[in-house]
Structure formats: C-alpha cells, structure tokens
Amino acid sequence: MKQSLGAKTLLFPAPVLLVGTYDQAGKPNLMNAAWGGICCSEPPCVGVSLRKARHSYDAIVERKAFTICIPTESQLKEADYVGIASGRNADKFAVAGLTPVKSELVDAPYAAEFPFVLECRLLHTIEIGIHTQFIGEIVDVKADPAVLAADGLPDILKLKPLIFDTAHRGYYGVGELLGQAFSAGREFGI
Q1: How far apart are CA 145 and CA 150, in angstroms?
Q2: Which ranges carry the Flavin reductase like domain (predicted)?
Q3: Nearest 10 degrees: Cα torsion 104, 109, 115, 117
Q4: For residues 183 and 135, what is the distance between their CA atoms, to the nearest angstrom?
Q5: Threshold 0.90, pTM exceeds
Q6: Domains annotated on the chain, with CATH
Q7: Rounded CA gap, 142 and 188, in Å?
C-alpha cells in the first residue's frame, strides 16, 4: 500500500528554468524558476509560475516578455546563484560573470553563456494562489551548435541540462537513453 504524503509540490523531475527580464530601470536580470514547462504545442508556449514578490514578476507584467535559458550541469553554481540572490540588490549578470544579450525579438535579455534559450512574448497571465503563471508564446528557440544533434535539433546528452529534485532541493543531470517514446509501448499491441 502506498503511503499518503499529503498535498505537496512533488513532481519529478522539474526543469531548471532561468527567466530573463529587464526591470523598470532597464537592468537585465535572471531568476531561477522550477515551476514551469511546455504548456501548448500550437502556438508553441511555455508556462512559468512566479510569486508576486519576485523582482522578475513586475518586469514580465510591464515588458510583456521574458526569455528562458536552460543551464547545463557545468553551470550549476551560476544557476543556483540567480535563484538565491535578488535582482533588487545585485547585478546578477555581473556577479555570476554572465553576458547579457538583448533579444532581437522580445523585450527581454538572455545570458550568452547558456547554450539553449527560449524567447517568449507574454500571451496569458493566470492567478493561481500564491503564484501567477505567465504563459509565453515561444517566438524563437536559440541553441549553440555544440548542443545540436545531426538532425539540427537539441541533443539532451550534449546539452546536459540541470534538473531539480522538488522533494530534497537538489540538482541532478540526465541519464542514458532508456527507450524511444511512441515506440517502446507498442509491444502491448498498438
């Protein structure tokens, strides 16, 4: 019999999403958010949930845009730092040694050092308890060639993205390929 753990924010794994914004003064900022993921295929959209108290919250509302950088295993310290420091009190780009790049498509920055970036235009804002979910239409995906497979799409084993353990607040990496989606289950007769 399974043991009840109660209503908790436990889902495995959670992505590590670094949300890029410009604040009211035009200063670039990054924050670490684990509450997010793809939420629509057409149009392509990603959702990320933030508390109103976060510095990035007002920036997204005002600029109607944000970026999402995906950090790699080797960028764990930078990714964690932008999640524990506040953009109100620090220039996170400067402290972490990151280079802000102004998106050509949306009014938000991203960090040049992270190899995978989603550029998003704010599409919807949904109030959910203590968090607000921002739904961003993905207007472009940018990737360093070093993380692409021969077919031109991202290779998860080359990217080596960080993932987050919501139960124990730890960062992990991805493992080996275990099987192909939409194929492995066909042995049951589809």
Answers
A1: 10
A2: 9-164
A3: -70
A4: 31
A5: yes
A6: 14-188 (2.30.110.10)
A7: 38
